[in-house]
Design a protein that fits this description.
about 250 residues; alpha+beta; Glucose Oxidase, domain 1; 9-stranded mixed sheet; about 15% helix; binds N'-Formylkynurenine
Length: about 250
């Protein structure tokens, strides 16, 4: 199922039948990805007087409650509402769903006790071309990222200067396989989040950050067509499923 996308005078082709899902799904229990010191998510059948929402236990339907936090337990996309006094819903602010995206692989640098991505590293991988969406896969890239509990592990993050570099290059949608673009314990500064949304200046309210993605090693760095949508939650963040389509050689 080949689709043609026209950009300026150039035509690109993608195969809609070959989507590359780079989300981490939510599965109830302790093997789920986790961050921010929360208990694992729970998926459990509704039980009321004379009813159980589980067919295997005699119920007429499977009818589960799902207890989770989008920032901790699943690939999620967030808008500036994550850090502003005003309520902003990602479901309203993300209202385009297709973007040109560049996938890059970066090994965060050791900076003191931390690992972080610098502006220089992004300069190196982004070259001169701007891209609406940037997907950062960090090294080491292990399958265990899909079930890791990041709480108290001081995960890698992006330096504020790296975010300034992205904003200068008009990157509107940033996707990372980390739990945050900021340091786990930064005293509430959130410097990279603030820089990305230009808090205090002209807010970049259509910009989004997607965290906790997982890009398998079999997917090559390069340009992709990205479909990014959130589950329709009116909240600062919502579960999302970024899907890539390879640009076919023509
Ligand atoms: N680093 C912040 C905490 C933080 O960033 C955070 C806390 C809970 C849920 C999400 C968070 N950041 C997500 O990007 C702090 O130390 O206060």
């Amino acid at each position: 199922m080949i689709a043609t996308i026209t950009r300026g005078s150039t035509q690109y082709q993608i195969d809609l039948a070959n989507p590359i899902d780079i989300s981490i799904p939510l599965v109830g229990g302790k093997d789920n990805v986790n961050a921010w010191y929360l208990e694992p998510p729970i998926i459990e059948p509704v039980k009321t007087e004379g009813f159980i929402g589980k067919v295997a236990e005699g119920g007429s339907v499977n009818f589960n409650m799902v207890h989770f936090n989008p920032h901790s337990h699943v690939t999620h996309t967030e808008c500036s509402g994550h850090i502003t006094r005003e309520v902003h819903s990602v479901n309203r602010h993300l209202n385009n769903y297709f973007f040109w995206a560049k996938l890059v692989t970066v090994a965060p640098e050791k900076i003191g006790d931390d690992f972080a991505i610098s502006a220089k590293q992004l300069e190196y991988v982004l070259d001169d071309k701007s891209t609406e969406a940037l997907i950062i896969r960090t090294i080491p890239n292990v399958e265990a990222k899909r079930s890791k509990d990041y709480s108290n592990t001081n995960p890698a993050y992006l330096l504020e200067e790296a975010i300034h570099f992205l904003v200068d290059h008009d990157v509107k949608h940033l996707l990372v396989d980390l739990p945050s673009v900021d340091k786990e314990r930064d005293g509430g500064q959130l410097a990279s989040h603030k820089a990305f949304w230009n808090i205090g200046g002209e807010e970049r309210s259509d910009a989004t950050i997607t965290e906790l993605i997982y890009v398998p090693n079999t997917i090559e760095d390069g340009m992709y067509w990205l479909n990014l949508q959130v589950a329709p939650f009116e909240n600062d963040a919502a579960p999302s499923r970024p899907v890539l389509f390879k640009i076919l050689e023509t």
